[in-house]
Amino acid sequence: MPQLRLSLRTAVTLPFIAVFALTVGLLSFWQQRQVDKLINQESLRLLDAITIASRHQLAEYLETPLQVQHAVADALARDGVYRPGDMRPLYRHLIRAFSELYAQYDQISVMGFGGVRGEYAGVRRERDGTYRLILQDDSTQGMMRVFPGLEPSPDALGYAGYDPRIRPWYSHAIAAEGPRWSPIYTVAGDRGDVTLSAATAVKTPEGVVGVVAADLRLSSMNRFLQAQPLRGNGFIAIVDAQDYLVAHSLPRPILAQPGNAFQSPSRLPLTQSPEPALRTAARWLEAHPATDDTPLHLSFAEEGQIYHGQITPFRDTRGIDWRIVVVLPESDLVSSIRSDSRTALTGAIVLALLGLALGLWWLQRAIRPILVTADAAHRLAGGDWDAAKALAPTRMVEISALVGAFNHMAQRLQQSFEHMRTLVQFDTLTHLLTRAGLIQRADAAAIAAGKPCHAALCLLELQNFRSIRDDVGHSTAEQLLQAVAERLRTQLPRQVLLARPASNEFAIVWLEQLDTEQLQQRSLQVLNMFAQPFSVGEDDILLRACAGGLSGELLPGALPDWLRNASIALGEAERGPRRYVAYEPALAQRMLGRTQLAMELRQALDKHELAVHYQPVVDLATGHMRGAEALVRWHSPTRGMVPPGVFIAVAEESDLILRIGGWVLRQAAHDIAAHLDRLPRDFELHVNVSARELIQSDFATTLERVLISSGLPPRMLTLELTESMLLEGNDATLQRIGAIKALGVKIAIDDFGTGYSSLAYLSRLRFDCIKIDQSFVRKLPASQPDTAIVTAVLRIAEGFGVQVVAEGVELEAQALLLSSLGCRRAQGYWFARPGPLAQMLAYRSPWK
């Protein structure tokens, strides 16, 4: 006779069904009686809670615009930024206050100021979080203009006839003491929002100069009421003294759409609300006008549903006379009284305990195989792959299926674990050890030796791999890495440990005693492997590499520190002329010093310690200024004047060069644009651009924004790029130079002659100027070789049809020789040292 096999679901649920069916029946009968008894008092309690919460939150919601605009008004009066007819200082103050100090207050849509002469400046926050400038002063010829951003620009909407002095927010605030709410009105301009404004008159010792207003769109109050957590399926509305809607919790506007396009939207009275329950409440409101702060309670039936409601006055002596209308369906009230059914639950507990005791006894028998399986799972987690064999068969269908699935899972898990361990230890691309695999192998060797073992580590990096990858693509770059790994594998002894700890880094560990000279010799032998190009498909690619290394006694767990120290030495090799650098503690101290300097430089940017100095570029024939090079200077409170060669190098190694370069470009452009009337028409501003800046995909866009915001003509800006940056660049670099040239900005090759110049490559570049490096000018006129080099550069420039500027002119004889050789422009200490803008503007020719 076959044995009876029950499903786990049947075995667990049968004892509980009968008990809980009787319990639920008793609970339902008793709960119905309790709901009928408590419904009235619950309605009053919940309506009071919603009203109190809404009043409190509404008061906080409205208080913020009052405080913000009052604080702005005080600041404007205290700082005296109002200038009749010129709103620039004032709207800059508003932009800083609104977008930085008070940006978190979402209820404020517009922060504006209306002047006593009819000027207006405002900042409007759009629904996407951006800001727009609204301006009406002498610069807009008396028209109100709405700009697309926070700076005046040609593409702006214009509106004639706007006078803030006749707007409700102005007229109510000008005669009041302190902040005040305006009547609800329609905003003038391109959107026509229905708005409530908090406004305060700005009073200076000379008298009232205008009114500051913070606008609150009524549409934002709808979202505020919709977010009220206590209302459930009910409705909340706010009406003014004339029973017109101020806001409601419905996802619909409070405006009635006009019959034609020439009419403005009008506000809806509560009697025309799209919700029938609110329309019924409006009739109660008309029949019982509020005379004091006593709430009005109401109950009615609408569309087969019973509603309970409450109407409560909400007043503020600063201009608010509203009423809060809350209407809740009785279904919400019933659902909130579930906690009052504890009496019914008490009667059901006795029966539930009996069923629970029986169920627990049966459940214990049912889940015992599950407990055995759980114990096997714990053993499996501890690495005991034989745990699944200890599971005994069972008669229950589900448990039997669970045991089978567990055995299958244990088998698959063991396979996956072995595969994952392989992936962790070996690089899937090159089949060399990964960083984790190298550390594990080194630790294993140190442990097997039973004492500290001698070892040496060489960490090398492919210096030009990233630029090659950008040129040939990722697929070819991966093949190149495989070719490098294969060459190392075939030309190094099999006993060494080879790893690829990073994308373009390779690590070699010799498990033998090597002194510093021996390690250097072996590391240079490894670097010499890169003298021959690598064949990848049809391409022969030549790679450059540098390395850092160290040797000594290797303890278990010490290899991560070795890798870090080797990386420090590798970084020193990247920055210096040597291909290999051995680690020494002084390198770590030097790196720590660079890190400290980088941190201070970041703080200097935030504290505005950097300054832009200008060195004139002069016409050698007349000595007159024809341009200037913008140079960044840092005067540290603790270090004093930090040489540019020190902090610029640190900035190049981090992201700080992007911030510094962008700041210098903006500052210099604005400085020169502000003094165009004092400068020659052919004046050229030279600004250095780093390689990190140039490779940014949006650099041309940033440059265009700087030109627009500053007003500097593009023809007057020349960007200086180092010769090495251009010659090592790829097609992407040429494309970005083309985008810069398309803006009308000029390109100069800086430090010309110091790199490995290629005339064939120069012919592809669209440059406008060559700057002869000061190393060739410094020895003039005594050095004949340098004179020949300068002459050759001048002839090259003449062939390309570009301008030449000689740097580092410190003697009159140098200037005279350069002029006789045909060089037209120069800069250097002979003419002027770099200095502040005022010093540059006061430049006088040294020629008598």
Give the uncertain stretches in residue-range form.
none
Number of helices: 25
Strand content: 15-25%
Rg, rounded, reads 40 Å
Mean pLDDT reading: 82
Q: What is the CA-CA span between the terminal residues?
A: 127 Å
| Amount of helix | 40-55%
Instruction: Tell me the overall shape.
Output: flat
Per DSSP E runs of 2 or more residues, the count of β-strands stands at 32
Largest β-sheet summary = 9 strands, antiparallel
The helix-and-strand class reads alpha+beta
Your description of this structure?
The protein is an alpha+beta fold and 848 residues long. The protein contains 25 helices and 32 strands. The strands form 6 sheets. Strands 1, 2, 3, 4, 5, 6, 7, 8 and 9 form a 9-stranded antiparallel β-sheet that branches. The protein has an 8-stranded mixed beta barrel with strand order 24-25-27-28-29-30-31-32, surrounded by 4 helices. Strands 11-10-16-15-14 form a 5-stranded antiparallel β-sheet, sandwiched between helices. It starts with 7 loop residues before the first helix and ends in a 7-residue tail after the last helix. 33% of the residues are buried. The mean pLDDT is 82.
What's the quick description here?
The protein is an alpha+beta fold. The chain contains 25 helices and 32 strands. The chain starts with 7 loop residues before the first helix and ends in a 7-residue tail after the last helix.
